[in-house]
Every structure is written in C-alpha cells, then in structure tokens.
Write a structure and sequence with these properties.
Structural class: alpha/beta
Radius of gyration: 30 Å
Order of helices and strands: HHEEEHEEHEHHEHEHEEHEHEH
Length: about 325
C-alpha cells in the first residue's frame, strides 16, 4: 500500500512538471483548490493566533530578582510566568477555538539569584510566593517529637528540622525517624553555643562537627544552617556559606519555649503569618498540641506549607 502511494505521488509530480500548469487545466484546478484551502485555513487560524498573543500579555508575570533588604537581609527571587504562544497555538489549532485552559505556560528565571548575592541570612521567602515554611530547632524535647511527626504525617506536611550535633550523637534513632519521614535536615551547631561570642575557628568547628555526625548518622550533609538562639555575626554567616550552607533565621516565632497555651500560640502565629513566612518551633508541649490547628489556620489563609528549601526556592507553585 505504501509503495503504491509513493508511486502515485511520483507520477503526479512528473505529470505536473512535464506538462506545466498552463497546458494542464486539471493541474491548474487542483493547485487552485489547494491554494484556496490553505488560504481558508490560514484565515480561520490567524484570529486564534492573535487571540493567544493578546492573552499572553494578560497572563505574563515578570521574574523577580533576589535582593538584599535593609531589614530582611537576603530575599530570594521568584520565577516569572509567560504564555508559550507557539505551543499554545499548536494545542488549539485542531479545534480552531480559543480555550484559556489549554494555554501552555513557561517559567522565566530571575536574572539575580541568591547565589549571586554576598553571604547574608535569610529570614523569609519571596513575599509573592504563597507558601509558608515550618522549621523546628532540636536540641532537647525528645518526648514531643513523635507526636509532632504524627501530626505532620496526618496533615501531609514536611518541615525542616535543624539538629544540634550533640543531640544527633545521643539520639541517632530519633534523628533517623525524622529523616525517614521525609523531613529536611539542617545544621544547628554542635553544642548550642552563642556564635556571636565565638572566634571564627570555634564557629567552624561547631558547624563542621555537626555536619560530620549528621553525615555519619543520616548519610547526608545539610545545606541549611540555623544559629542557636538566633545569635550570629557576619563571621558565622560567611563560614556557613564557605561550608555550602545558607544561614536561616525566622519570620514568625511561636515562642513555644515560654510554654504558652497552645491556642494562644496558634493565634499569635496566625496573626503574623504571611506569604514567605518561616515559622520557628521547638519540640515542646505547646507546639505538639497546637500544631494541627496551626496547619489548618495557615491553609485557611490560602498558603501552602513546605520545607525551608521549598519556600526559599525560586520555583513557582
């Protein structure tokens, strides 16, 4: 069948070129019909293409560059969004009907990334990204960790656990439980020191020692660092950067270590939470008891919940 089709195609071309269109009225009619069909299709499709181009202007969102803010320090960038006109047209071409649900979007990366900025702490994600991150600093409070993990599993939420190195050494099974449930692991120094009061060599030992024990226990190396008690200086931020880690602070503090009533803690967080917020917790009774209500409240405000890395990434949701 395919050979017959090929033979007829070759014959047609030989016939057309041998006799020309002037002396061949059949060929002339055939070509005219073909041309008219092409013009008809093109005339129908041109409005569709133009409509997609107009829609592209409406839906375009420029990428946002990472920057250093006077108050919030390093603010991550956020991918832009644009309509792929050609791909969208090809998807609608067969029906010839414009359908906004068939528009194909492409992300546009910023010109300036976090990696382009000088080392600086990160207090929150980009405020245009409707996402909130949960961070749990762990150096004590073992008895509350299983309950917090259970709530997160039930709510399909993953957080970032910043682990104290000496705690990991004493509690390898708990550290493994956290990691095995899919939570992100960060470095929280080794002995919970005041980094702002330490010389550079001591700061580096604290970070490296923690990375070593986490790597030996969990077979991974953190790329995020949270200073104990939020105390740090420019030296600590630079050392963390040299070790391949971003320094992470917080936007909203649960102050759970003061043992507030769970409902008061939740209300405090929900009054302050906004897009890009990083919420600081510890393994405490208020955090364990109020975590589910806090998760529900954050979602009711229209925010997704993720790890610190997800919140500070440039990727769109």
């Amino acid at each position: 069948m395919r050979k017959q089709l090929l033979h007829w195609t070759v014959f047609l071309f030989i016939f057309l070129f041998a006799f020309g269109t002037v002396d061949n009225p059949w060929a002339t009619r055939y070509l005219n019909d073909l041309t008219q069909q092409s013009v008809s299709v093109a005339s129908k499709q041109k409005p569709l293409y133009n409509k997609i181009k107009e829609a592209a202007k409406k839906y375009k969102e420029p990428a946002i560059d990472a920057r250093i803010d006077k108050v919030w320090k390093a603010i991550p960038g956020y991918d832009g969004l644009k309509v792929d006109v050609k791909a969208s047209y090809e998807k609608m071409q067969k029906s010839g009907v414009y359908d906004k649900d068939k528009l194909i979007f492409r992300e546009m990366t910023p010109d300036v990334h976090l990696s382009d900025l000088p080392p600086a702490p990160i207090y929150k994600g980009n405020p245009d990204k409707p996402m909130v991150g949960l961070m749990v600093n762990v150096a004590w409070g073992n008895e509350y960790i299983p309950k917090m993990l259970k709530v997160m599993e039930q709510e399909d939420v993953h957080a970032t656990f910043f682990l104290d190195g000496s705690w990991v050494k004493k509690n390898p099974d708990l550290a493994k439980m956290i990691a095995e449930e899919g939570h992100e692991i960060g470095n929280h120094a080794y002995s919970h020191p005041d980094l702002a009061a330490l010389p550079g060599a001591a700061i580096q030992r604290e970070m490296q020692k923690t990375n070593t024990v986490i790597r030996a226990t969990l077979d991974m190396t953190p790329d995020l660092f949270a200073p104990p008690s939020g105390s740090y200086g420019p030296q600590a931020v630079k050392i963390a950067s040299n070790l391949g880690m971003k320094t992470i602070m917080w936007t909203v503090d649960t102050v759970d270590w003061k043992k507030p009533r769970p409902q008061d803690m939740v209300q405090r967080v929900l009054q302050k939470v906004h897009a890009g917020s990083l919420i600081l917790m510890h393994p405490t009774s208020p955090a364990a008891e109020g975590l589910k209500s806090m998760i529900h409240g954050i979602r009711e405000r229209g925010y997704q919940i993720g790890t610190v890395s997800t919140v500070i990434s440039e990727d769109r949701l």
